[in-house]
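=== RUN LOG ===
request id: a7f3
mode: sequence -> structure
chains: 1
length: 131
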Amino acid sequence: MSEKSERYDQGMATRRSVLGASYVDAATKKSSTYDEPFQTLITEAAWGHVWSRDTITKRERSMMTLALLAGLGNFEELALHTRATANTGASRDDIMEAMLHVAIYAGVPRANHAIKVVKQVLDEMDGGQKP
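=== RESULT ===
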């Protein structure tokens, strides 16, 4: 592996704080020399540049991310970032507000499926209790 930049190090620290160290460790172990350029890109750009900015809070950034992922139909990433709300400070009410925006601006079918995904994740986070 090549030497990592300061932006990469910042990104990895932010990624760990948002997604959790155990998730990031598992994802890192799955990477290979083949996908190293992609992993470096997302760590530096998404986590080191965008998520590390202090212009808005991690809670606000989390809500925007949830809405964008739901609106674009990226439901696997939506589940991941729903779990991350435990670390970003976005509440369940915040998540629903984001999904309501999705319904209006991206369509009810997308929001409907996104809410289904969110409910499943929140249920898992509660140890099987319905949110």
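=== NOTES ===
The mean pLDDT is 95.
The CA atoms of residues 83 and 121 lie 7 Å apart.
=== END ===
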